[in-house]
Amino acid sequence: SNINTVYQKSLTAPVNCDRRYFNTEKVDEEWERLQKAIDWPIPDQEITHLNQSTSPVHSTFSIVGLKESYKVREKISVAITARDHNKNLKRYGGDFFQAKLFSSELKASVYGEVVDHRNGTYSVALLLPWEGQAQVSVRLEHSSEVVQILKKYRESSFPRSHYNGYFEGPGLNKTRVHEVVECNLKWGADGNWRKGDCCCEYKDIKTGTVWQCQRPKKLSCDKLVHHSYGRLESPLNLFEKKLTNVAISGDQKIIHVLPSTAAIGTMEKCRSGMTTPVPAGFYLKDVWKSFVCNTRQFSPAQMGNCLKNKIVYLMGDSTTRQWFEYLERKVPGKYDSIFNVQFKTQYKMLITDLHYISNDIDEIAGGPHAVIVFTFFAHLVFHPITFYVYEVAKIQQSVVALLSRAPETTVIIKSGNTDIFQSDWHMLQLDTVMREMFRDIGVIFLDVWQMTSCHYLRENIHPGPVIIANEVDMLLSHVCPA
């Protein structure tokens, strides 16, 4: 299907959209740029049997021209060859590989960006940022065939994430009636997950976003009290899931890295609008060394001093809540009042406690003491990409308006984590959309994708404490730059 057509329809659908959130003169140009950014190679032939898909067992990698030793800041080149389950070479691209350089002994690692040559071969240029030993690791996240399944389901109108609505009201003989029904987004002309007069609808006036809940049998629509995340409907079967996030075999030789006189890293002050290089940094002895700007480690006392004159607005999902919980544990108690917290969670919560990020930003005065942090990824992976673009566009317009009225406000976007539970490919696509839509707006984009992708801890929707500590240090380095 032509996703541009869906997007254009969404702009004119009165039930879902308000055109004032878009610069309509630039919609075509911006959408074309987004399509180009998230473009992904597709198989050039129809796959009729699973054996024709890419196999993590038979795909391999090798280090090109491996030398006896290297110096810090040099790079090595890694070649990846994809094969199917019959050991045949693949002739087209689209496989989703992830690569890193690591040292278990040094607790060191660095992310490598995989280049798809669209002919079944791939390459990675890996930086050597530390002195000592290192090894290469490559894993197949998804075959190109599985990516096509994910893409197909994402672009279908039927949602793969489901939610619960809790209704409560008076019954007979002074009893209380409780009903739990399924709820979901209403999106696009063909995107209704329920048809006709089946449902209660709840429209947010400012954003135009509409939720539907199945109509309760005994209670009226105005008795909706609580909301929770329900279930995730994966489009992959069990065998396809087993082929996800599997390390492939390859050159396990030890790489010897000698010291270099050239400095590594940067002393540039952290500020808004900085670009994110690849790699964005590296771990050494479990400490993240940023290549973006001069980050540092903060003691609890330094955290308190950094934040004592700030009002920090933390918005998003449970991965942002991890930052809040970490700061709550570390920062002295007298600073507790600095946080204004709003998280979307999978747990049961009051409807009145659910807010839209764009609406909350519209209510913030801003200024040099205001720090706004948000993330908007994990709960959106199986919704249509057009819906995600629509919601991000509203946040974008609210941020632009905020920085216009209060340009000294610090706005920080926390990127998506790698999260194999819901598909790293989906998360990477959303992450790309967010970066493109906030390019050149003057915000700070904290790249935790690379930080979670290359660390030795197993990927988790909620990264481990050592990763959170490094993420918060990076956050504070932007709030209180050295």
From TrEMBL:
Gene3D superfamilies: Immunoglobulins. This is NXPE family member 3-like. Pfam families: Neurexophilin (PF06312), NXPE4_C (PF24536). It comes from Sinocyclocheilus rhinocerous. GO terms for biological process: nervous system development. Belongs to the NXPE family. InterPro entries: Ig-like_fold (IPR013783), Ig_E-set (IPR014756), NXPE4_C (IPR057106), NXPH/NXPE (IPR026845). Residues 288-333, 341-480 form the NXPE C-terminal domain. It comes from the Eukaryota. PANTHER family: NEUREXOPHILIN AND PC-ESTERASE DOMAIN FAMILY, MEMBER 5, NXPE FAMILY MEMBER. Coiled coil: none annotated.
